[in-house]
Task: inverse folding
């Protein structure tokens, strides 16, 4: 069997590093990992130069500008990475006849729903980060390469900076913490999403010719608030720190967050026959790895 040549963009991010850990389980894949050093998504010439003599069967874009609050003042940089680069990559994928897999976000929604968001629900981002990610989505759908896009939410892992690691640090340093309880969604363990992506790459339904670039939602199963997430982190880590539930209005940030961004995952589960773990079980897994 010939190895499937896969490129992962964003090697040093949470998802990129999680894919790297799992790659040994997928012997049929020859995976190349690149970071900003090899391909700077803020520079169109850097992207074009990298692909000038590189050919892949699958291109997975895990890279993004994700500093939600800083994006409000770094609009140009967020636009270059989340929109312009995605457009360039989609054109390259189409030219190479490569399958393009792109990761997007729950921040494209207004966050005022009363039931989990479907892929077909209307979008209305509340900040620059969400707007630039949505424009990246729209550019992709207009170019229409072979492949799919996955919106996800509340990503955490053993790597980089994220809510889990912040809570572990602050919980051990302080006696008391305030955490928002009126923003509802689901945490996503990057390792679970990484496995889902690698499984999708080998799925028979991916090889079928689809007329349109497809959109899916993925997070772990279940629902919680940031307060619930923090409470679970402290319970499972046996951290003795008092948690106070506060409202969003009591913790002002530069960017507005969606109050409710639960994602409906029926489509991705049925299309690719995926089994998605419950968020608290995955949190325990991640904590086990951090403690080893």
Result:
């Amino acid at each position: 069997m010939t190895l499937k040549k896969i490129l992962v963009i964003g090697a040093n991010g949470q998802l990129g590093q999680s894919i790297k850990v799992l790659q040994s389980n997928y012997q049929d894949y020859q995976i190349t990992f690149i970071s900003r050093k090899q391909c700077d998504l803020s520079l169109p010439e850097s992207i074009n130069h990298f692909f000038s003599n590189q050919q892949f069967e699958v291109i997975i874009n895990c890279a993004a500008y994700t500093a939600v609050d800083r994006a409000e003042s770094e609009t140009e940089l967020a636009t270059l990475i989340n929109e312009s680069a995605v457009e360039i990559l989609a054109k390259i994928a189409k030219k190479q006849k490569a399958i393009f897999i792109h990761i997007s976000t729950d921040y494209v929604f207004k966050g005022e729903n009363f039931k989990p968001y479907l892929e077909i629900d209307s979008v209305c981002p509340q900040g620059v980060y969400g707007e630039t990610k949505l424009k990246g989505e729209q550019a992709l759908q207009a170019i229409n390469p072979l492949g799919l896009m996955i919106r996800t939410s509340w990503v955490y892992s053993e790597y980089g900076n994220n809510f889990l690691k912040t809570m572990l640090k602050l919980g051990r340093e302080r006696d008391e913490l305030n955490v928002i309880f009126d923003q509802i969604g689901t945490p996503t363990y990057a390792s679970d999403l990484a496995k889902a992506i690698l499984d999708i790459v080998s799925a028979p339904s991916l090889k079928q010719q689809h007329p349109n670039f497809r959109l899916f939602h993925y997070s772990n199963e279940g629902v919680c608030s940031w307060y619930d997430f923090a409470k679970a982190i402290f319970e499972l880590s046996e951290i003795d720190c008092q948690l106070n539930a506060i409202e969003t209005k009591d913790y002002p940030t530069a960017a507005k967050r969606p109050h409710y961004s639960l994602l409906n995952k029926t489509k991705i589960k049925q299309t690719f026959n995926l089994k998605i773990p419950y968020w608290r079980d995955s949190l325990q897994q991640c904590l086990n790895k951090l403690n080893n």
Notes: The first helix runs from residue 14 to 22. The domain at 4-161+187-221+262-277 is CATH 3.40.50.720 (Rossmann fold). The chain has ten helices and twelve strands. The chain has a mean pLDDT of 95.
